[in-house]
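Before relying on records like the one below, remember that each one covers exactly one chain. Contacts with other chains, cofactors or solvent are not represented anywhere in the record.
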Amino acid sequence: MSKNIKRVAYIGLLAAFAVVISYVESLLPINIGIPGVKPGLANFVIVIALYEFNVKDAFMINLIRILIVGMMFGNLFSILFSISGAVVSLIVMALVKKIKGMSLFGVSVAGGVAHNVGQLIVAAFVVNTYTIGYYIPVLIIAGIITGILVGIPASIVRGVLHKILVSERIS
């Protein structure tokens, strides 16, 4: 099987896995009283893709996940907020990953914070007020916590997946 076919197959599998994780997360009764704060566990797939593939592949996996989950369980606004957070998060993670000595956990935390900030920016435009900026401290703390929670399984799974990809000469 060619390298490109294997790459597309892995990207499809990762996108499907991210969709399943997003669905399971939507079933969890997590409500801390702040709109939009959730663990974002499917983002660990994006962190892995960023390390094992590239930014373009990670973006495609995330876009596929957001569109499928949004069409099945959300609405146009949920898709808009998810895409805004995902784009900002991916850009920040790609840049932070280039910093010498930055760990996967650091990249994941930066992505969690950036995701929340990206969504807050869109929310400010949607509701046409900047007073929701008062959520920033809480969202930064939530981003740090969720970034750590995403970084732990991402680190474990990445180690296993890296061995598979190297043995198949895909990464």
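The chain has one domain: 3-167.
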